[in-house]
Amino acid sequence: MGTTRGFFRRRSGDDERLPPGQYLERGFPVLSAGPTPHVPLDQWDFSITGSLSEERSWTWDEFLALPREDFTVDIHCVTTWTKLDTQWTGVSVDTLLDGVELEGGYLTALCDGGYTTNLPVEDVTGGKAWVVYQYDGEELEPEHGGPARLLVPHLYFWKSAKWVRRLIFTDEDEPGFWEQLGYHDRGDPWLEQRYQGD
Ligand SMILES: Nc1nc2c(c(=O)[nH]1)N[C@H]1C(S)=C(S)[C@@H](COP(=O)(O)O)O[C@H]1N2
Ligand SMILES: [Mo]
Predict the structure, then answer these.
(1) Is beta strand 164-170 parallel, antiparallel or unpaired with respect to 45-50?
(2) Quick one: pLDDT at residue 1?
(3) Class of domain 19-26+41-191
(4) Can you give the pTM of this predicted structure?
């Protein structure tokens, strides 16, 4: 892997885009805590539940009909790789929450397979988070979270829950899978918030 990276010339400016302790990755590693789930699209739905004024859910077709955004962002995994200029298509969490009043300050993303991660509402609103279903112009591969994953690029990549099916809004912050195992509650790569106490 180290030798492969040597074949690429770094563009100027790349280094400033690397948070502390991160290296530039050109591939796209797969990191999953369990097996890749495969849910048929006619059985797939997406919902927002919990402490909000109105619970909502969408079938796959309804989800695809929502306003979509194409965007390019850098992603940062806590295992120290950073990948620049990744291209995604999906629905902004702002769009999912349009017209909904939130009553709590937190949420838990819940995935097929049982993976969870917790976030403060401010980290998924204001144009900072999406539920994406395309990567690099193609449908999102199952290994990378397809049919759809949460994408919260300004936080470490474990917050970007693959195979996400539901956002559960909560009054209290409830630690998710990695957070219960000692990873930081928020995970800002620029503050190097890797573990609890960082
Ligand atoms: N459902 C689910 N989402 C997950 C994970 C997981 O194990 N299960 N791993 C997280 C971690 S630690 C990382 S770094 C990224 C990896 O995403 P990738 O496999 O597309 O690179 O997914 C995150 N989302
Ligand atoms: Mo990770």
Answers:
(1) parallel
(2) 44
(3) alpha beta
(4) 0.94
Tell the residue number behind the tokens 């495969």, with chain if given.
38
**19 to each of 23, 77, 118, 167, 174, how far by Cα in Å?**
9, 10, 22, 28, 27
Atom 21 of ligand 1, residue of closest alpha carbon: 30
pLDDT of residue 124: 98
> What's the average model confidence in pLDDT over 127-148?
98
Does pLDDT of 8 surpass 80?
no
Which of 39, 82, 111, 158 most suits a substitution to test ligand 1, by most atoms within 8 Å of the C-beta? 158
Neighbours of ion ligand 2 (CB under 5 A): 31, 77-78, 158
Ligand 1 pocket by Cβ (under 6 Å):
29-33, 77, 111, 113, 115, 144-145, 157-158, 160-163
Is the confidence at residue 161, as pLDDT, over 60? yes
